[in-house]
Specification:
The complex is a heterodimer of chains A (864) and B (111). With 864 residues, chain A is of the alpha+beta class. Chain A contains 26 helices and 22 strands. In chain A, strands 3-4-9-6-8-7 form a 6-stranded mixed barrel. A 6-stranded mixed beta barrel of chain A has the order 14-15-20-17-19-18. With 111 residues, chain B is of the alpha+beta class. Chain B has one domain (13-110): Winged helix-like DNA-binding domain superfamily/Winged helix DNA-binding domain (Arc Repressor Mutant, subunit A), CATH 1.10.10. In chain B, strands 1-3-2 form a 3-stranded antiparallel β-sheet. The chains are: A alpha+beta (864), B alpha+beta (111).
Chain lengths: 864, 111
């Protein structure tokens, strides 16, 4: 209540002080040698500050004063607020992304106790998927985990529910949902016995599939649906928003790990992904130690398959976020540099204003305002600008969320839910305050120096020096962003131009799977495949066509150890893994994969002919030393002593980017589909059809009708254009490039405006000096070059400093593998961005230079 | 710790001297300034710029109370007097000061 009491006393206090000082003066008047009385107003001010509500009244008064000032100087206020809104908005928007990708826990209870576990090849240092028997042994032996669950994706065809549809389902161990800690919204979870073959015909739907395919039928639980020709009982529906491991997977079925197909339930097929929930009594470290011991025991017990096989544990979140973490941090860093540039810009605007307001401040100082008091007032002005700008920035970020989500959807994980939450609002408030202090404090401290005299020019030098330093900072930070944008742009261009080893233009693709029920044997599959091949060759609209177990960028080609006849098994850390895909004749031609030597796969390469293979040049380089003539060399998929056939190499194709556009291509082997034999039911069920045609729409209709004629129950995904998958594979590069360019463009504008401001201001300050020079006979060109030189001096310093920063940035970009086909010290990029920045800053100082040259000496001198 | 050549007071000591001056009887500001000037044998000059803020600060801290009364010259003046808290504060400050002053004196003699 004390403050209320004081507030009421406030008015009488003024009177009191007045009287008290009047009395003092009267008494002193009688004295012969009166001590000097100070500045009465200043004393009163000090006492009033002390006795009253002090800070609150000051804030309110300064706030009102600042608002009045802004109304007077609208141009300044609008510029400052727009600057702040842009910078804070961009920063907040990037923070929303950063929070979602890096800070938010995964949407599972106690998500930080979830870890992914991999088989780990100790010699090669590579993590792999896990074999079924290793997983079952881990689950039985480990004590550090509450549960260990396994999962693996598989295509499933749903029939009898409209058009046959191929969905991607997740085969899971029955405890997966329990491990994640999520219960079904409808129905029940899997039961432990459903791991056994024969008990596994049950399915849990995602909310999305339930809505899309089953019309959100509330009585779905217990219903039978036909999947791959078998009857499955729907036992549950997951809650909305549950996606695991990502949105691709639309249903969950048990993996028959016990009593299932021996091809899958062994200790050499690495195909399971394993996730575990660490007990609250254990730590990830202790779990790791325990798993290492178990892996050691398994290695000793099964030396032929588990030799050199250890385990690797990674937090589930790390595996979800992966490399995106660094990209997000980098982009957030760029947004922060932009904010710093805006702060520097605003600070120099405020310093300029404080010079212009010298008279006002001097007057206020004479009237009793102390220096801290004036500094506080300037800070309050900065604060008010910040608050308005911050609010606008938050609004801007809110508007940006949608487009950011769409732009980032293909480039960053976890972008499905991007939203403004209280933490974001709190962050942007904190950011706003930090911004106000950042750009307000310097001007408040320097701007209020030596206010004793209204015409005092002592502080002028400091202010101009500070503005120059701020401009140099802006120019150098802009150069860093520009260089980043330039390197990204070059990478993106290279990515678009790079030789991918295939031609995606006018290639139509579709995918389907030959299910176990319709195609129980290799013979049936081959029969279908042969009819399809023959049928497709009839279409005149298809210039070339074929099918394969994998498409470029689909990531379906599986990796397998390879043996070369007459060559000792590879040792050490050199990988003996090559990617394998099975292709039909015509597939390589349809994709225009360049044949370098030998012949393509021909229709005659069937089950009766000798086994052959095509390899790519990477394979020749890594497996055959690159020197020998590869034609006729014999290789085997698997170890040299395994029972598979030796394949003769008949041709070599150019390296192609089958896995990702950016990573360097891996060794590839192309095996004729019609020579798969017994392996067809294991490796040859998922097929992609590719046809090259100048009329893609017509071709895709033809392809679809041919498949339907052969098997009407087959679900087909597509048609898609291969060029579209190439396009979406470039989305991450495009995303980061466009963001970086946006930041850099804003930075460029800010820096040039900043430079313009400083030069224009110093020209205005030197009007008389320039007038005198002109009167004394200086040429206008001399004046122009004098002003330009001062601008060039600043921008030159800024560019030099910026180049150092840009070099540091480019090294980081290279380390994070964000550059493609461009050196981190790419001279062209650096020269161009430095040139652009130099040119823009030159123009920015040319305007005030021309104004300086047009100064009329008579007027300039009279003005004094 | 009292003053330098120009008679400026070192911070902190003014509060203590005000309290001491008021420990005899209530006084108004001018009288306090005079009293300190006299008692210091005209060494210390208390500037109003320091005096009045100090008085208000002490009053806010609850060490002083004030009243408007008629002065000896029959004018309305604001008289300050010690509160019990002010008296207690004075005892503490005074004993601290004596100890400090003696200590400083010893240092200055021996050095």
């Amino acid at each position: 209540m004390r403050w209320w009491f004081r507030l009421r006393k406030r008015r009488s206090l003024d009177q009191d002080l007045e009287d008290e000082i009047a009395f003092h003066r009267a008494m002193r008047a009688h004295d012969l040698d009166p001590p000097p009385f100070g500045n009465a107003t200043q004393i009163k001010e000090r006492i009033r500050d002390m006795c009253t509500l002090g800070w609150l009244e000051v804030l309110v008064a300064d706030g009102c004063y600042a608002l009045r000032g802004m109304r007077r100087d609208k141009a300044f206020a609008v510029t400052a607020i727009a600057l702040l809104a842009l910078a804070i908005g961009a920063n907040t928007a990037m923070f929303i992304v950063l929070k979602r990708v890096i800070l938010d826990p995964l949407p599972f209870p106690d998500a930080d106790r979830l870890v992914r576990i991999y088989d780990f090849h100790k010699e090669r240092g590579t993590a792999q998927s896990v074999t079924a028997l290793n997983y079952l042994d881990w689950a039985a032996e480990s004590k550090a985990f509450e549960t260990l669950a396994a999962f693996s994706g598989q295509g499933m065809t749903i029939t009898g529910q409209g058009e046959p549809e191929l969905i991607i389902a997740l085969g899971v161990s029955p405890n997966l949902l329990q491990t994640l800690g999520i219960k079904a919204a409808l129905g029940r979870d899997f039961r432990p016995e459903e791991i056994v073959r024969g008990r596994d015909r049950v399915i849990i739907l995602t909310h999305r599939l339930w809505q899309r395919k089953f019309g959100a039928d509330p009585a779905i639980v217990g219903r039978q649906v036909r999947i791959n020709g078998d009857g499955y009982e729907v036992i549950g529906v997951m809650p909305a928003g549950f996606n695991f491991p990502d949105k691709t997977y639309e249903a969950f079925v048990p993996l028959p790990l016990r009593g299932g197909d021996p091809a899958w339930t062994n200790r050499s097929s690495h195909y399971l992904r394993v996730v575990g929930r660490v007990r609250s009594s254990a730590t990830i470290e202790s779990a790791r130690a325990e798993m290492n011991q178990i892996a050691g025991r398994l290695e000793a017990a099964y030396p032929e398959v588990n030799a050199k096989l250890g385990v690797q544990l990674r937090a589930l979140k790390d595996t979800v976020v992966g490399d995106s973490r660094r990209l997000v941090l980098l982009l957030y860093g760029a947004a922060t540099i932009l904010l710093l540039i805006a702060c520097a810009n605003l600070a120099s605007l405020l310093v300029a204003r404080s010079s212009a307001r010298r008279l006002e401040f001097a007057t206020r100082a004479a009237l009793g305002a102390s220096r801290p008091r004036l500094a506080v007032q300037m800070l309050v002005e900065a604060g008010i600008l910040s608050i308005i700008g911050g609010a606008a920035g938050l609004g801007l970020a809110y508007l940006l969320i949608r487009s950011l989500r769409i732009a980032a959807l293909e480039s960053l994980p976890r972008m499905d839910e991007l939203q403004l939450d209280p933490a974001i609002v709190a962050f942007s408030i904190a950011l706003t305050m930090a911004t106000a202090i950042l750009f307000g404090l310097g001007p408040a401290l320097f701007g209020t120096r030596s206010l004793g005299t209204a015409r005092g020019s002592g502080a002028h030098g400091i202010r101009q020096g500070m503005r120059q330093a701020l401009v140099i900072a802006q120019v150098s930070m802009s150069l860093v962003l520009l260089a980043g944008a330039g390197l990204f742009l070059r990478s993106l261009y290279n990515l678009g131009q790079a030789d991918r080893g295939f031609d995606a233009e006018s290639v139509v693709t579709m995918g389907f799977a030959l299910g176990v029920n319709g195609y129980p044997s290799a013979g049936k599959m081959m029969n279908f495949a042969e009819q399809l091949r023959a049928g497709l060759s009839e279409f005149p609209s298809l210039r070339a066509s074929g099918f394969s177990t994998s498409l470029p960028l689909s990531g379906q080609a599986w990796g397998n150890p390879i043996a070369v006849q007459g060559q000792a098994p590879m040792t050490g850390n050199k990988s003996n893994i090559a990617r394998i895909q099975c292709i039909s004749p015509g597939f390589q031609e349809a994709l225009r994969m360049r044949l370098l030597v030998g012949r393509p796969i021909a229709p005659s390469d069937d089950s009766r002919a000798p086994a052959v293979a095509l390899v790519d040049e990477i394979f020749v380089r890594t497996f055959l030393d690159g020197t020998r003539n590869p034609i006729g060399e014999r290789i085997k998929i698997g170890e040299a002593d395994s029972r598979g056939p030796w394949l003769s190499i008949v041709g070599v194709v150019a390296a192609s980017r089958q896995f990702s556009l950016e990573a360097s291509p891996e060794a590839h082997i192309f095996v004729p589909y019609f020579q798969l034999g017994d392996l067809a039911p294991i490796f040859g069920r998922g097929l992609y059809l590719a046809g090259r045609s100048s009329t893609p729409a017509e071709a895709s209709r033809a392809m679809k009708s041919k498949i339907a004629a052969l098997d009407p129950t087959l679900a087909v995904r597509g048609p898609n254009l291969l060029s579209e998958s190439v396009d979406s594979a470039m989305a991450p590069a495009r995303f980061r490039t466009s963001l970086m360019i946006g930041f850099a463009a804003l930075a460029l504008v800010l820096a040039s405006v900043g430079l313009y401001g400083v030069i224009a201001f110093s020209v205005a300050q030197q009007t008389q000096e320039i007038g005198v020079r002109i009167a004394l006979g200086a040429q206008r060109t001399q004046i122009i070059s004098m002003v330009l030189a001062s601008g060039a001096h600043l921008s030159g310093l800024g560019i030099t400093l910026g180049l150092c920063g840009a070099l540091a940035l480019s090294r980081i970009l290279e380390k994070e593998q964000l550059l493609f086909g461009v050196s981190p010290r790419d001279g062209l990029t650096f020269a161009v961005v430095a040139g652009v920045l130099g040119l823009v800053t030159f123009v920015a100082s040319l305007v005030p230079a021309r104004r300086a040259a047009s100064i009329d000496p008579m007027r300039a001198l009279r003005a004094e | 710790m009292a003053k330098n050549q120009t008679g400026e007071l070192v911070q902190g000591t003014l509060d203590m001297m005000i309290l001491k001056t008021l420990s005899q009887c209530p006084m108004h500001g001018y009288a306090i300034a005079l009293a300190i000037h006299d008692r210091s044998l005209e060494v210390l000059k208390v500037e109003e710029g320091s005096l009045y803020p100090a008085l208000h600060r002490l009053e806010l801290a609850g060490l002083l109370e004030s009243d408007w009364k008629l002065s000896e010259a029959n004018r309305r003046a604001k008289f300050y007097r010690l509160t019990p808290a002010g008296r207690k504060k004075l005892t503490v400050e005074a004993s601290n000061w004596v100890r400090l002053a003696a200590a400083i004196a010893r240092v200055m003699e021996t050095a």
